[in-house]
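Item description
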Amino acid sequence: MGARTAGTRWAAAAGTAALLLTGCGGGAEDEATALDRAQVASVLPDEDGLAGWDSTEDSSVAPMDDVARRNFCASAGNKGCERSLFLGSASFMREDEQSRARFWMVAYEDEKAAEAAYDVLWKNTARTAGRDDADLGPVGARRDAVGGPIGYDGAYGVTGQIRVGAALLWVSSDARSEKKLDKTLVKDLAALFSDRAQQAQNGEEPSAAL
């Protein structure tokens, strides 16, 4: 399908900008619990939850071992990865090929560990994701987002980071130009991902869909 092959230069540039966790946050029933590998996999959106989108790579979940920590938390001492358990990611392109989306997340042992990692990892994300203020809407216990150009062909993307309980989420979306970037879609993607993360921590099967 064209989603996997179209816009080679744009897709290659967009791929360098991607980075994930959000939650519906706020209800008294919301839990903050460690997620196991299967639960992390269930949080990642799939084509059923993203109608009109095609997966551009297989979703993946891996233990946060020493190699993953060195790659994901590149600062001295791998700060931000302390007491992390699993790393998951998934990527999509809309069927009209006008937007891309990427989701990734880190599951921690508890809420305290996720909160301690938040500022460290957001500093790393914001340094490379753009300088324009961006808005994810009211998701998660904490959230930040920035936007900026991607590559050299005019593509523009927004990347956000969210804490939902004991997990950190990142969501990114980009389009061929800033004018074509749907900022409402960015908020919808953030809400989708954060809701799924909270559902899993509440002991439910994630069912939130776009």
Notes: The two ends are 21 Å apart (CA to CA).
